[in-house]
Amino acid sequence: xxxxxxxxxxxxxxxxxxxxxxxxxxxxxxxxxxxxxxxxxxxxxxxxxxxxxxxxxxxxxxxxxxxxxxxxxxxxxxxxxxxxxxxxxxxxxxxxxxxxxxxxxxxxxx
Length: 110
Fold this sequence. Notes:
Elements lengths: L2 H5 L4 H9 L10 E7 L5 E7 H13 L7 E6 L2 H32 L1
Antiparallel strand pairs: 1-2, 1-3
Helix pairs in contact: 2-3
């Protein structure tokens, strides 16, 4: 692949962001697990490579908006990133269950 073809790669902007930070471009191949919780409390998970996430964030900010995704794990493989999402779902469910238990015990004490 020559330099001209590389400039048209969708990931190129993300790689350039990584290189501008003085970091090796192969870090763009790391996998990111991120999540967004909407106004109704619905959680959405997203898995992508770091270079792609950086590119998406750059383009969104440039256009004056943001999806609101929050990165919570950096992983070596896509499978590890999906496993991180599953762990987070379990932790979120456990936290919700704990909140219900606390609310119910508070209601009994009133």
